[in-house]
Amino acid sequence: MPREFRTDIQALRGLAVLLVVLYHARIGPFTAGYLGVDVFFVISGFLITKLVRTQLEQSRFSFSEFYYRRAKRLLPAAYIVIALTTVASPFLLSDVGLQEFRNQVIGALTFSSNIVPWYQVDYFGPAAETMPLLHFWSLSVEEQYYLLLPLFLALAPRRWWLIGIAAFLVASLALCFYLVAQNPSAVFYLLPTRSWEMSIGSLGAFLPTMPVVSAVLVKLRFPALALLLLAPMGFAHPVVDAALICLATLTFLLARTRDNIVVRGMARIGDISYSLYLIHWPVLVYMRAVWLAEPPALAIYAAVAFSFVGSWALYSFVEEPFRRGYVMSRLRLVSGLAAASVLLAFSPSVAIATTENKFDFATIRRINYGLARACDFKPGPPPQDVPKSCQTTNRPELLVWGDSFAMALVPGLAKTIGEGGLAQLTMSGCFPAIGVAAVSKELASPFSRAFGEDCIDFNDRVLAVLKNRPEISTVAISSPFDTPVSNEYMVLKRNGETFTDAKVSQYITIEGIKALVEGVRALGKRVVVVAPPPVGNFDIGDCLERKARGSIMLGRYSDCKIDVSEYRRRRARTLELLNEVALKADVEVVSYHDFLCDGTTCKTEIDGKFLYRDSGHLSYEGSEIIARQTNLAERLIRAAR
Q: SS3 for 384?
């Protein structure tokens, strides 16, 4: 079924994929270059709706033909990328990464890739850069839309087409605005909150192209181009940015752009846009995995260049031959794709089997919750008392209070404190202080504020619990203490019954910790602060695993040791904060840096045992080794005042 080819639409595809690639490679000013995906969504909605509408009006639409063409267009190239990514995975992914990769493959094969990462990872967080098939989420959203749109158009009366799509658009956009503050990951990944973008394209496919309207749209092309180039640099609101990008894309779809050298050049990139989108992300993920941290600029440029060359080859030798139908008959193609799906589904298990090792890295690097997972309290109603699973005796003498770094201290303290016992009250991301909390600027929204308020309530409640537990005589507070002095965060401060936002401030943070110390002492108890372990500019746990497995590692961190000068430079504000806390709150800050570090480097393993499970948290074994070899429990009790 030949369709009219528009070079300008192909050019839009080229611009969209360039924005995405540059964003993922961190090249240029496109801090919101992920909006290129929104351009793809609008184009897809526009073209598919035009195709289905035309065929239905001509009474020649076939569901089997429609989905066969989609499979022929998308699957061969995607399956090649999945296969190559799987072959490389045993050499470049960690044990945990391989387990997650299996889910990614299943998600890619079943068009549910947007659901897998929704609850696994934050697209904008560092964990996203360890998932080689994360980018399949957008293809899944499109395919889910392609399941619903033809059904609606085929089953609904034609007079409902325009109204139905418009209603779907409004409902999806409203849901998007409503949920973005509460669950930004769901908004980003799931069809109900992304379908409005494709619906904009679908709506555009129904709009009449009257000369007057076309003339107005032609005049809007320059502002639309400005939006396409400026919005990816980051405006004020993610949904607003996406809406501007979508409207700008629709403008170009409805107002043809004449061919010129720029359009034709961008269209050549558009030709390979699908293959480039498929290839570039796993290449960048594996490049960063080998370097352990952000690779040098030359390596990133090489990865991007390789992606372009690889995408040209994939387009020329796989994508185009299959799309044009030169390769094989329909029966053989469908049978081959079905067989390939089954093989690819089992391929990660084979990859995992090839990496079997005498070390159980998944256990060694498991999340360190302290005494129990239940001791990581979630936002919501704060604890009324110490749960039984979060204390080693019925009458513990030591309380460990803080965030996930405090959790990581607990296993070692619990095994070395003796009959006195300890209790644990901890909440991830909530540093110990009274009346203040650090909240992320990236989530500067009711969602982020709600977490900050819950954190403040949690710390208030811990103080109330202490009042009712006279047997607890010593309180050790622990945290990395980096968020309240990081420019990526802001401070939520309680003023009476209200909460106000403020810039990160050492003064506000010190006052909050000082209020905690004074509150504990007012109950007749002693308090001590535990300094966080030294950290590097890389994932220490991942590095140690790669080293033990003999995996490829490049760059300055391949010995897995922490450079002392780099650590002190990167954590200068935190170290200064702890010094000020010691002076102004009259509290001892206990550190085990001298045990781990000499003048130049800090150890990350002892006798082959991992001290860290990730970039900063102690492993269970590491917690015990440090507690035993430094007599940490005894030091904390002795230093408390």
A: coil
pLDDT at site 177 = 87
Tell me the two tokens of residue 639. 């230093």
DSSP assignment of 179-215 equals: HTTT-HHHHHH-HHHHHHHHHHHHHHHHS---HHHHH
pLDDT of residue 210: 67
With a CB cutoff of 8 Å and minimum separation 6, the contacts of 616 are: 405, 480, 532, 533, 535, 540
How many Å apart are CA 208 and CA 193, to the nearest integer? 27
Looking at per-residue pLDDT, the higher value among 531 and 181 belongs to: 531
The dihedral built from the CA positions of residue 513, 515, 516 and 520, taken in this order, carries a sign that is positive
H or E segment and range at residue 424: strand 422-426
Q: Quote the CA–CA distance of 32 and 58 in Å, as a whole number.
A: 41
Residue 97 per-residue DSSP state: H
**What angle is formed at CA 497 by the lines to CA 491 and CA 500, rounded to 5 degrees?**
25
Task: Count CB neighbours of 366 within 10 A.
Answer: 13
Contact 259, 7 (CB under 8 A): yes
Compute the chain's Rg from CA coordinates.
Answer: 28
117 — pLDDT class (breaks 50, 70, 90): low
Band (236; pLDDT cuts 50, 70, 90)? low
Identify the three-state secondary structure at position 499. Answer: strand
Name the pLDDT band for 467 (thresholds 50, 70, 90): very high
Mean pLDDT of the chain: 90
Residues found in the chain: 641
Sheet harboring 589-590: ordered strands across?
422-426, 398-402, 474-478, 526-530, 589-590
Q: What share of the chain is helix, strand, coil (3-state, %, to 5)?
A: 65, 10, 30
| Pairwise CA distance, residues 606 & 617, whole Å | 16
Question: Which pair of tokens denotes residue 318?
Answer: 């796989």
